[in-house]
Amino acid sequence: MVKRRKNHRSSENLHADSVASNGVQNGVENGGAKCEDEKPALLIDQAAEKKWKNWWVRTTWTLIMISGFFLIIAAGHLYVVIFVMLLQNLVFKEVISLSHEPNKERKLPWFRALYWYSLLTTNYFLYGESIIYYFKRSVLVDAFLLPLATYHRFISFMLYCIGFVWFVTNLKKGHYKFQFKQFAWTHMALLLVCFQSHFIINNIFEGMIWFFLPVALVICNDIFAYIFGFFFGRTPLIKLSPKKTVEGFIGGWVSTVIFAFMFSIVLIKSKYMCCPAENFSTSAFSDVQCDLNPAFIPVEYKLKPWMFRLLYHLFRTEIRHVYIAPLQLHAFVMASFASLIAPFGGFFASGLKRAFNIKDFGDSIPGHGGITDRMDCQFLMGFFSYMYYQSFIKSVTSSSIVILQDIINNLSTNDQVDLYMNLQEYLVGQGLLSEKVIECTQALLS
């Protein structure tokens, strides 16, 4: 009888331990939700000392990052491209490190090297495509670059095949599941990080404004959403980010739309911002000239009678016409995306952090976390900006020089020489070249 009671009691204890263990495990899996309930999640409810300390740290480093960003923008297209690629590599490193398991990786030689080989191969393909497309006039006339450009996609595919064979030949018994999980994780990181940052760099080549404006809109929305949430935030927005509030979300959107409309007026006055990149030697101090995209040219709009009367009552001034650049209307769409859709890139990152039970992706930026914590919305915004620009803004102009280069590139060597000689004869006949040029050319070819 005593023995039965003892067994019954021990079974109750085991059940209690099991419940407690499951509770702890669930708390960990939910990102410490139980602990979060005990602490004030909203910024407005936090202790004043802690809240203001975080405010000043965050504000100081925000100003430092914005200042550095302006300096890089002024330095020129080359430095901006290098900056984006550096950020891409750092984000890739932080994302890959989430699934880092040292004990298993030590037993797999060259395992982490495969990560960086995959990154290198992907960058070779994506940025090679961009360079060939945007700098075709330079690439297709260079004897060294021409074969690389012609067979670029095949070379990229073979590089990927080398990495694929490398992965398969390094599969080790007892680690199959871990290795395939890392293989899938690497491809996900390449898709979310490298693929999207590739379009950000394309925006730079199309014109600095298509890179600068989207980035500025995300930064503006982040700042004002934080300010409105700091002072007025009472209604939680989403469980993935308990500090985000509806007040901050809406306040950030309204502020970003106003900022976009006004700031775009300033940007269209700079040829450096508006002109596409023709080479990597230009900077903010260069004399840049180009035919402006119609989106940058203000258009006259005649106000409706009720608009005229409203403005007269408000400002006591007759305003019958206004000039608005199409970019300002496009900026409204981009600002709305930066405020209403791009933040979900941050919510996605928050869900990822909760899945791995971490607070931030790193601690490289005081008050902000890691590089990924600042770039989670920028990648999605940059991708959208490229698609929106290509669909609604880019002026479609057929360059005869580019078309001729494509034709010449497909001619045989003898046909290219004949075309060159015929062109020389034509220019001599028009009096634009001396006959000595043809004689010198014939002497060199013979």
From TrEMBL:
Keywords from the UniProt entry: Lipid biosynthesis, Lipid metabolism, Membrane, Nucleotidyltransferase, Phospholipid biosynthesis, Phospholipid metabolism, Transferase, Transmembrane, Transmembrane helix
Localization annotation: Membrane
EC number assigned by the record: 2.7.7.41
Topology in membrane: Multi-pass membrane protein
Enzyme superclass (EC): transferase
GO-annotated molecular function: phosphatidate cytidylyltransferase activity
TM helices/strands, residue ranges: 61-92, 113-134, 154-171, 183-201, 207-233, 245-268, 329-349
Pathway membership: Phospholipid metabolism; CDP-diacylglycerol biosynthesis; CDP-diacylglycerol from sn-glycerol 3-phosphate: step 3/3; Lipid metabolism
GO biological process: CDP-diacylglycerol biosynthetic process
Record InterPro entries: PC_trans, PC_Trfase_euk
Record carries keyword Nucleotidyltransferase: yes
Predominant subcellular localization, coarse grouping: membrane
Catalytic activity from the UniProt record: a 1,2-diacyl-sn-glycero-3-phosphate + CTP + H(+) = a CDP-1,2-diacyl-sn-glycerol + diphosphate
Protein name: Phosphatidate cytidylyltransferase
